[in-house]
């Protein structure tokens, strides 16, 4: 068991290493000379050389990579070439809205998608099933910012039920915080709902054919018990797997949604940094999101033993 | 009034190409405490019949007509909540596949206990105690330990014992056992049959045993019903059926059974007879006797007129124009 | 008196009638059956043909030059003159939207084709070469662990300055791992088949095996995969352009039109609205086509997606 956990953790090392090399190359190959940018317009050639030497930019790729990687592992992502502040500080300021957005999105997605998938599987081929499947295709097809604008236009701008844009920190109270997140999270959950509902339906369809479902019904268990206790418990492994993979969709969506709803999170910072060509920040964000994604999926892999007693390592 | 009375049961399924008449006009009774065996090849409608008694058939695509009366009440009109109260409590069921019929993510104790908790308002602890008691009753060693194990930790025979424990946990008046021994090793088969026989005398349940194995029938049942192509072709006591089978299909089935000791007779080598031909396609309309195409005694009339079930001897029904009739029976 | 001939059947008792309780299923013609069985395939295909026609015939359909500036006619609501209104530079949004179909379709198709070809090659390679497999698959895992949009953003910032080619390249790289994994899994399972092993034993060359056994087995799932990649590429392109990391703003892509409407969406939602509808319908068409193909080609695939 613990040997498996160790092996699984070790197996993420090449992936993490690849991501780090990739992201570092991004900065290394990025157009423009950071030393010149940092030195400013009035700098002489000597000033630039001095800064380059000071930053260690004149050394070789491997040396710089090791130094940079060491910094990253200590939580130091370098200096922004736009604001000249430490990147770590800039990112920390932006973490809360993004984490909040993702947590609320995940909650909405799970609460809606799983009953949808279960209902669709249960009433297979019915009008309800078709409607749910149509919703899923739409979820995959309508880009997230389009959903965002439609919801913001109708629910916030025209009906005035929710704030149009902006973010309320959780320190200001749970309710304002939640109100500021409902629209963006509902928007972002669209694709996620489609993804989870589909896998739930597909898995449940297979499981409802199983003999043990017949046994449960023959015992006199009620329909909802059969569905949500006997069947869904068995469907959890694929569902949880897809939830983990869907985090990538959520991260991608956050980049766009934070722009649409003016949430001061990491996604918004990404877009700002692209426009400013602030490579160290872009680099750090990609790295952090990828790490989070890899770790979430690692944890999900390890959770299988808790979900299914047959899985033992 | 018998415990279970089935009258003119029809179970039809709509398929892509037509309507499959899986069960077509079946009638039979089961008395309280009686063991009835239902015999036939796979696809003859016996499993579908058993599922319909518990109301477990999906409709649509299926459609059921006729009557299934349990203690005089027609189950085909019963509400879903009424059926839920019957299932597991008054009618228990054991399935063919012990390997897959238990839910892999719950412990054996939870699965036996669920039945008890559903029907008897028992607490978690009481249900667990009952589960242990049931496991002991069905002969599982160290039940206190097994009760917390998952199905994958049990052997096939043990799982079937656990299934029996689930089915009998609430002392049902009727136990429907659909091929309970087919998927098991021969030695385990005998143990499970002995166990069922033993429990039947203890609990007093009537049993409807569905099987394709006439050896099992001889050992277990009192009365036999032979099904072919969704119809009843013969019904008699086990003794009469084995001694004087009247329908050619039953005769064919009996010839196909290897019998211990039969080589002691005149023949030195015993060949297992098999019934030539195949079961008819039930989604095509049938004319005349369903068995006519495979019957060694078929005449022209058999392809035209569907034979009625007739009493050929006391307590012995058969649906064949040419089955011998006992004169004294009339 | 004429003697009534005795009924010869009278001695045979007939069973009672067995009534029909279910009407037989309706008989349908083949074409109807195809349409009814795979409606999504045909709806998707029809929509896609419409959008493609619009893209090809853009110069005939669009009433104005999509790049023509008209400073006197800025940010106008939809009218008879400009059906979808005009943007901040006075450009006709309807004309730009019609031309936008070209960008979306080229990017979608381009990425689908490129990712399929490269992914196929990489998948076959790592399926056949044990030593390459480990390295290639670790790289693919690494690429897949970076969310697609971020990967595309990173590549776009590296290439500095968007062009249709750069956008296709960036999205292709992000999509290749999916195809490579699919192909590799098909190769590995096909290689184990007895008939392929027999072929190897009889001296069929590796290329022969790839051509005769691997390709036919890969084609169906790959086609389905390619349509999904096409749909996701069109969305990715729109997102990239929308956040300013995609096409140069002079290109009338749907993402760009929406990016231009971003600042004004609360007052002039029509700038965002029209390209959004076209984008959504086009992606929907491709997704429906993909679902239809998947169901038609192999119903078992439905469970995997």
* Helix residue percentage of chain C: 55-70%
- Greatest interface and its participating residue counts: A-C, 50 and 45 residues
CATH topology of chain C: MetI-like fold
> How do the helices and strands follow one another from N- to C-terminus of chain B?
EEEHEEHEHHHHEHEHEEHHEE
What is the molecular shape of chain B? globular
Profile the largest sheet of chain B. Answer: 8 strands, mixed
Family (chain B): Belongs to the ABC transporter superfamily.
Keywords (chain B): ATP-binding, Cell membrane, Membrane, Nucleotide-binding, Transport
GO molecular function, one term (chain B): ATP binding
Protein name (chain B): Peptide/nickel transport system ATP-binding protein
Task: Give a verbal description of the structure.
The complex is a heterotrimer of chains A (313), B (330) and C (305). Chain A has helices at 2-29, 34-39, 45-55, 61-73, 87-122, 127-141, 144-158, 174-208, 211-218, 223-260, 266-276, 279-307. Chain A is mainly alpha-helical and 313 residues long. Chain A folds into two domains: 17-76, no CATH class; 93-307, MetI-like (MetI-like fold, Orthogonal Bundle). In chain A, helix 5 (87-122) crosses helix 8. Chain B has 330 residues and is α/β, with parallel strands linked by helices. Chain B has ten helices and twelve strands. In chain B, strand 1 (4-14) and strand 2 form a beta hairpin. In chain B, the strands form two sheets. In chain B, strands 6-7-8-3-9-10-12-11 form an eight-stranded mixed β-sheet, sandwiched between helices. Helix content of chain B is 30%, strand content 22%. By secondary structure, chain C is an all-alpha fold. Chain C has a single domain, classed as MetI-like (MetI-like fold, Orthogonal Bundle), CATH 1.10.3720. Residues 301-305 of chain C have low confidence and may be disordered. Chains in contact: A-B, A-C, B-C. The A-B interface holds A 210-212, 214-223, 230, 233-234, 307-310 and B 54, 56, 80, 84-89, 92-93, 95, 97, 100-106, 111, 114-115, 118-119, 150, 152, 163, 166-167. Chain C: Keywords: Cell membrane, Membrane, Transmembrane, Transmembrane helix, Transport. Chain C: This is Peptide/nickel transport system permease protein. Chain C: One of its GO terms (cellular component) is plasma membrane. Chain C: Residues 1-21 are annotated as: Disordered. Chain C: It is a multi-pass membrane protein.
